[in-house]
Every structure is written in structure tokens, then in C-alpha cells.
Amino acid sequence: MSLKIRLARGGSKKRPYYRIVIADSRAPRDGRFIEKVGHYNPLLAKDDENRVGLNVERIKEWMVKGAKPTDRVARFMSEAGLVEWKAGNNPNKGKPGQKALDRIEERKEKEEARKAAAEEAKAAAAEAEAAPAEEATEEAEG
Length: 142
Prior knowledge:
The structure is a single chain. A hairpin with a 2-residue loop joins β1 (3-12) and β2. With 142 residues, the protein is of the alpha+beta class. The protein starts with a strand and ends with a helix. It has 2 domains: 3-80, CATH 3.30.1320.10; 97-136. The protein has 3 helices and 5 strands, in the order ββββαβαα. The chain is rod-shaped. The protein has helices at residues 56-64, 71-80, 98-141, and strands at residues 3-12, 15-24, 35-40, 52-54, 68-69.
């Protein structure tokens, strides 16, 4: 049996309150659990001492028995000095998908076409200005 130290949601709609519980990893999130070892109230201010409460002795006992904390609970436990939590780094997760890459490529092509058209228009305007000036100089000479 794989044990997890995780959050179980309680509270009403849009008013979350979490219990930190020891549960079998196969049990539902808000369902059966073995023991309640803390609480988390996200509605309180981050510096409020009642935002997170942990029963440190019981958590240590369960970790000896093989319970592993989830990422969020590990953050809370690291603040209490129980585990060392490191932020995960998955650079592939932040990369855009294939459709987004296609859209980016389309935008680049459209931008290049627009710039080429603008350069063409500038060149045409410069030729149009130069042509009447040449005609005026030819008439003055002739």
C-alpha cells in the first residue's frame, strides 16, 4: 500500500478549506483517509499563523512508515523543516504546442510579406518622384 500525505478539500463552494491527511494513493481525493495530520486555509493571509497547521510528530511517524508528501504538502512541510523541497523544473512543459508554432510561423510570413510590400511601395514612390524631376531637367535642357 502506497501512502501519501496530501490535501483533502472541504468547505463550501468558492470557500475552500483543506485537511492534510495520510491516505492510500488509490483513494479518492476527498474520500477515505487514514489520519488527519493538519489543515490549510488558503483564504487567510500568507503571513497568518493559522493558514497552515501541521501535527509534526505524527507526520514524522508516517514518513518513517513510507508516506510521501505531494508537492504542495512538501512546500508546507519544508517551511516547518520536515523535508527539503525544491521547485520542479520542466522546460518542455512551457514550450508551445505544434499549432502555436504553426501560428507563429504564419505571423512571421505575413510580417515579411507586409515588409516586402512596404519596401516595394517606397521604391515605387521614389521612382514616381524621380521621373517628373528628370522630365523637367530634359525640358530645361531642350
